[in-house]
Specification:
This protein is an alpha/beta fold. The chain has 3 domains: 12-81, no CATH class; 92-388, no CATH class; 397-447, no CATH class. The protein is 45% helix and 11% strand. α6 (131-149) packs across α8 (183-194).
Length: 447
């Protein structure tokens, strides 16, 4: 009796090759890399993703407690040969089929406008803070304003517009409802009542929108457009001149480039969407060719700006050097830009707050409406205590230093930052809150 010879179909061979190819391709790429310590091996070119750069080192203790296996899986997943292509294809599928974008906290509105969902909530008052809390904060700001005024320093609060409030017509109907109050309206009304120095760019942009020749907010960007940014900077400089009774370098432009492809930060969300093929932008955006007045005698009013990401644009523009006498930008009252120590990242808690404040002539707090719930990021509370109860301030400041030291370490080490990012997503809390929890754990303050 003859034994029937086993045969394999061409289809089966093709399937096996298709299944094994990603693994084989990863091995081939690994073998062809330039150096043994090349941490950029297969590093995907994706925006907004925290990548595990450091390959985990084997140890028996890590093997026994399973941390090595977890770290190795995480590293291999991030450095898989097809990581970038698969992420982009998956994002493209969700975008085309379900009108969804894989950017944490962002949604698509009408006509492909992208929005931070929190800014939509702000536009309709869904993130409303209790008015008593706002009043208490602003009363401290007024005490601080009066205290600094005696030292020749002006405090200025700037309320910037958010995309949700400025582009309501492009928000999906499911978010819309009758609005009684918003954080912006409460901040402005109470600032006016108690006599705070403030600039309401939110209302100014509302009035400007119907007559503006160019968009003040881009379709695929999170912040105001470059054109809107230029308008905001010009308005702020003129307001500070009146407030502080000074003459500052002006910002001017005579030429404006009008293009249909976003420049600068006008498509920052589109970049973070990590699509395989970007959609047409279908919007004419304006880019003034700006020039700063070159007069060193005028560039003497040092302005410290404490702000959210809306001030990054003016920083790139050169406002700090050209108009604010090299004044610093404190990003969320945390990171110091530019760093006072070249080549090092410096955070506000590492500085002497009193000497830093008093080295400026103007302290400007600028926050968009979506960030009014965290207005000032404790700067007002800290500065208030510094001048009214210095002992309380310095004791608390010393106690918090250990937590802040570990928090800085987390922000600077990709593997630690990735763990905090995952915790942020899993617990549905802000990244800063997740980092603080991990920092407290590293400090031994919580389990």
């Amino acid at each position: 009796m003859s034994v029937k010879q086993k045969t394999y179909s061409v289809q089966l061979v093709i399937c096996l090759m298709a299944i094994s190819w990603p693994l084989l391709y990863s091995v081939l790429k690994y073998q062809s890399r330039e150096g043994e310590e090349d941490i950029s091996y297969n590093k995907p070119n994706l925006t907004g993703l925290v990548i595990s750069d450091e390959k985990p080192k084997f140890s028996f203790s890590d093997w026994l407690n399973s941390s090595y296996q977890t770290s190795a899986d995480d590293y291999n997943n991030d450095h898989w040969a097809y990581k970038e292509n698969m992420v982009r294809l998956n994002n493209q599928f969700c975008y085309k089929m379900f009108n969804q974008i894989r950017v944490n906290g962002f949604v698509i509105g009408k006509d492909d406008y992208v929005f931070s969902e929190s800014y939509i909530f702000s536009a309709f008052g869904d993130d409303l803070i209790k008015e008593d809390k706002i009043k208490a904060m602003l009363k401290k700001a007024k005490v601080l304003q009066d205290t600094l005024s005696k030292k020749g320093i002006d405090l200025l609060l700037v309320y910037a517009p958010g995309k949700g409030s400025s582009c309501k017509e492009f928000i999906e109907d499911k978010y819309k409802h009758v609005t009684k109050n918003t954080n912006h309206s409460l901040f402005v009304s109470n600032s006016k009542i108690i006599g705070l120095n403030y600039l309401d760019l939110y209302t100014y942009f509302d009035k400007l929108k119907p007559i503006s020749p160019y968009p003040l907010f881009p379709k695929f960007g999170h912040h105001w457009s470059y054109y809107g940014e230029c308008i905001a900077v010009d308005t702020i400089i003129k307001h500070i001149e009146k407030l502080h009774h000074c003459d500052m370098p002006s910002i001017k432009w005579t030429t404006i480039d009008v293009v249909d492809s976003a420049r600068s930060r006008d498509a920052d969300v589109l970049k973070s969407m990590n699509l395989f093929s970007n959609p047409a932008q279908n919007m004419k955006l304006a880019y003034p060719q700006i020039q700063f007045e070159n007069d060193s005698l005028k560039n003497t009013t040092r302005v410290l700006t404490i702000s959210d990401s809306y001030w990054y644009g003016p920083v790139y523009m050169g406002v700090g050097q050209n108009c604010f006498a090299n004044g610093q930008f404190w990003y969320y009252a945390n990171r110091v830009i530019p760093s006072p120590k070249q080549g090092e990242k410096v955070e506000v808690w590492e500085l002497d707050l009193k000497s830093e404040i008093e080295s400026n002539q103007v302290i400007m707090l600028l926050y968009s409406d979506g960030n009014l719930p965290i207005f000032g990021n404790n700067f007002i509370n800290d500065a208030y205590d510094l001048y009214t109860s210095p002992k309380v301030f310095y004791v608390r400041n010393e106690r918090n230093k250990q937590i802040q030291m570990f928090a800085k370490q987390i922000r600077e080490v990709p593997t630690l930052l990735k763990k905090s990012t995952l915790k942020s997503n899993n617990l549905q809390i802000s990244l800063d809150s997740a980092i603080k929890l991990d920092a407290m754990k590293m400090a031994g303050l919580i389990k």
